[in-house]
Fold this protein.
Amino acid sequence: MQNFIEFRNIVKKFGAFVALDHVSLSIPKGAFVTLLGPSGCGKTTLMRQLAGFSEPDEGDIIVNGKRINGLPPFKRNTPLVFQEYALFPHMTVYENISYGLKLKKISKEEIKQRVDTMLEMFNLTGMEKRFPKQLSGGQQQRVAFARALIMGQEILLLDEPLSNLDAKLRVDVRTELRQIQQRLGITTIYVTHDQDEALSMSDIIAVMRSGRLEQVGTPWEIYFRPANRFVADFVGTVNFISAQVLLAKDGMLTLALQNGRELTIPQGEQAEEGSGPVTLVVRPECIHLHVPGEPDAIDVLDGEILNYSFLGRMIRYWVKVGEDILIFDDANVDLNGARSGKVKLRLDNNRLHYLKDHGAHVVA
Amino acid sequence: MSTRMTAHESLREMKRLKNEPLLLLAIIIIILFIGLFVVYPVLRVITFPGVEDYLKLFQRSRWLKAISNSLQMTLLSATSCTAIAFLFAYVNARLDVPLKGLFRFVTLLPIVSPPFIVALSYILLFGVQGIITKQLLGLRVDIYGRTGLWIVQTVTFFPYAYSVIYGVIRSISTNLEYAAYNMGASRWKVFRDVFWPLCRPGVAGGALVAAINVLTDFGNPQMIGGDLALLPTEAYMQISGWYDMKTASVLAVALLIPAVVLFLVQRFWVGKRSYVTITGKETSLNPFPVPKYVKWGLFSLTLFVSLFILLVYGTLFYGAFTKAWGYDWTLTLENIKYVFEKGSQIWNSIRYAFLASLGAAFLAVVLAYIVQKKQVGINKTLDFLGILPGAIPGMFLGIGFVMAFNTPPLELTGTSAVMVLALLCWNIPTCYSSATAGLQQISASVEDAALNLGASSFRSFKDVIIPLLKTSFMSSFVLSFLRSVTCLSVVIFLYAPSTTVGTVSVMVLVQSGQWGAAAAFTIVLISIAFLVLKVSQWLLGKQGITLEL
């Protein structure tokens, strides 16, 4: 696919603070790209460079083959949905949604028609004359979406638009939003610190930290093949298990765990010399309970349940294994309640991922 | 290192101004205006006397006495103002008692009144011809001096402290107190450990506002101070009695120093110590009820003070319709007729106040917008220019204008222009803080949203900023108007016979013992101020805007 938006070596400093440190990112047309990271990582700053609210100190921003550095925000055609919505408090719903079209000197009839389409799409019909403060949070948020989408542009920017909604509504809106985005084929950049939103909506996730990109990839890659400890830890719950490589042969890797047990896993794409320390990245759902009666394989871990948390569809356990505490999810919940005492655990060898050098932060 | 980098960045920001000529022009005009009409007059006053003139301050015991009297009176009155203000604020914000409407009305009255009104009324009540002292009790007491002034200053200026303290108490969530009760604290401990510490910044702020007003007040001391030497009245005497500008300047500088200190403390020390955060989300429970005897005790105290203030204003009203106070109690319309004969002075009051407030509000909005929303490299300097006049006592500004503009090329003394300009400068800080507060409520993203949808800088200013600032513009305009109509200290040195205003007339009438006419003049001034306040509240109310004073 052809790259529609490109950030090339963007540097942005605020005084001595480096907000963006040589960030390069390419975005194909029609893609839903999420900038994910903790607060202060530079994700919003990067988006604001594209919208033109601030200018990068170095680097180029390319949209559709044209360099747009220096263009004032009102000439960029990059509608943005703000985190706190930024609706104009002195304008009605209708005036808010139509404001951008009015500036473009579009005829009253066409504005009316396009606003009506938006009102219908976002379930706001009948609320045209209300002021923002007369709307609920969810309604205000839909007005903000309508105000941006009505511009009919090829780009849509979303700055944590769901963070002010309650949990259930958030899940509904993100499904709806993803459907609209796919239907209209708008290239979308989405800023969030919420891993669930990122995983559920994106084509591509770019994980950021301290002004740098840590990893760019599909949700599957980010979740199951994190580039380093930071990405693994930030996206989802994770267990890190130290191990030594014993043997690399035929695409398989044999590892020695600290308790002396051995483990053989697929080598994946990484080349391995055949020795040295690695860190295993083990998601809670990649650990299974070892059913008594099965042969006691070489890779079974002995542990003791310390604590549990019942979540309905599964139970999360904290299990002490040697010196470590492992978190594992048991999706096989039965009516008898939680287990306790000593258990045997088994790692799902095919879904394990390992990091070299103890998973140091390697820039992607 | 870091300062050099900021200097470098400032320079870069200033260079960018070349592309925005309109903005650059606005900045230049504002700097020139404030430089010429605020900074220059102040410097004139400070540099006019020589070293030997300043040394005289420490040689004449009367001047030393004036300094110590001024400071003592400030300390005393500010303390009593704060105590009464806290009482009113607590009762209004936290107690479930009747007559709250009356209590609020009483705290609003002094804001629409000339500052010397309480002194005048106090004379009518307790003076030689006083209705209570002479008529009811048959006493002959000397009320002029320290005690009389103290009472008068307390009644006059406690509302200024009240509005600060009330605002803080209102914003303290009662949930915090419930949390303390929940952990087992007694009423007294909740007050001492939770409520009072949270109030403290507000109380300190209110006390300082009262102190600044008491220190720099001219009207009340002039009318009731009697023999008590105070800095503002002594400076006035030097000019009006002896035409001694040098000594007057020295005394004015002696007044400026504590005023600036109080101002700086208020702005930078107390301002930063506020724990109050307004989230707009929090829902507070009703205040935890206090014991009955405390509640009704506080209520009675508040009611007593309120009735006293009503008496003060009622007396004035009565005086305005009485033939000869103290001798002939016949009701008459003569005094009101007299005021209308002097109608041009009332008209001057209105005219100057209108122009000055309009100018100040406009200048302040532009200045605040530039400081808050534009990066021009000298934002801090511009911000300083906006608040600077607030540190200068009105009387000091008046003297400064006399000295700066009585000779060519800018010979303005005696003109209407000088009255308007002086009042305008005096009102800049009021309007500037209001505009700044208004702008800070407009989140940056709202303007960004307009730009993002395709509005140019000018379009977003016009479509978004201006409509959203309407409230703060109107309230600062009305407040400035009220301040200007009732102002005496700034204009006392600047008026000419043809540019006399109402407040000056009242002072002259009081000094010549024409109580009835003075009271009538005051009543008319208050009525105008109140009318303007009510009409603008009504007009704005129709557009769904509440006027904040």
Observations:
- Chain A has a mean pLDDT of 88.
- Helices of chain A lie at 43-51, 93-103, 108-121, 137-149, 167-184, 195-201, 219-224, 229-234.
